[in-house]
Amino acid sequence: MINTAVPHLAQEYEQQKKLFENQPAIVQRFLEGQAQSIADALISKTSQVQFTFPDRIQVGQNGTSPIPEAQRKISVGGFLQRDVREPLTQRLNELEGSTDQAIATGAGLLRYATVTHMVHDLLPAGRTVAYRADGDEQIPTIPTGDNAPESAITQASDAIVEDGNEGGRGEVQTPFVPAARKFFLPQWVAFDDKGKLLIGSANEAEAHVKSMQQYVTILHRALSFAPYVMACDEYQQKRYGILGQLVNQGRALANFKTQEIIRKVKERVENQTLNRGLSITLSYFDDQSLEMKTSELEIIPAGRIMFIPAFVVRATRSEQAKAAQDTRLNSSTRRHLLAQLKTLETAFQS
Questions:
Q1: Distance CA 300, CA 277 (A)
Q2: How many Å apart are CA 79 and CA 64, to the nearest integer?
Q3: What is the pLDDT of residues 142-181, one digit of tens each?
Q4: Distance in angstroms (rounded) separating the CA atoms of residues 244 and 290
Q5: Are residue 102 and residue 141 in the same domain, yes or no?
Q6: In terms of residue numbers, what domain contains 276?
Q7: How far apart are CA 320 and CA 335, in angstroms?
Q8: What is the rounded CA–CA span in Å between residue 179 and residue 220?
């Protein structure tokens, strides 16, 4: 994975990393404990956060500098504060600009400890993967794993470990299927490269997509809090791995839902229960916002109108024309949405 951090951010990251590592072990552990509270506030919507500076900080080569007791405890937000993230960031910026070198250094170390905790500790590590882009797309999403035989030794990332204590057994490892092991986090893979559902239901697939979205959210929050974190190799590896998997699986989920719509409509046609109107909510994955979105199609207005497959063809062609001109969509999302609409159209062409 190529690190794309700009030079001044890479330099800042290395400076903070070295400064943190030069702190006494007890100070490092203290900062890490405070960083957990700050990270929780950045991730969850909370109204208030409190953190504390250590009693002294190593600010250079000449030993440590004390932080007065009265200035150690910091509280941000309150009961009337709806979301503490912005004021928290502003407060830490102020502290880093303090004329007191110990406080300024401590604030910088708390920022570093927080993003390190978010990237390294809160996010599960994944497999080493490589993706290729589909055409000219910016996000590589197609796994390029080789066809080499799988190792006879099951690694932690190759299987789900379950408690098998019932009946006196130890831990039970359930290996992921080969299609899942081509991705960064196999435990969140719901579809193979043919669109086949690998797990129990579409609801489980949606839960996997939400888990990956939360993973990306934590990475984005870390980057917003400390832009220099992009110079961290683990950040780059996790960002690359999860983005490709999320877009791939999000699109696969949308494709699966489209096939389910086609199946259900045809089933209702056979049962003659489509003569009182029909609207379709078509799902697609927006790779700019990294979320599932929908396109609403009115096939038959409410009323007693006999269903004709040509109604679906006409509605999807109309929606394709709109999507082709929709400037809110980037080129890859537009192509994905148009493919969904074309699939629906083709299914009802005579």
A1: 5
A2: 36
A3: 999 754 445 444 455 555 544 555 555 545 445 678 999 9
A4: 11
A5: no
A6: 252-347
A7: 10
A8: 28
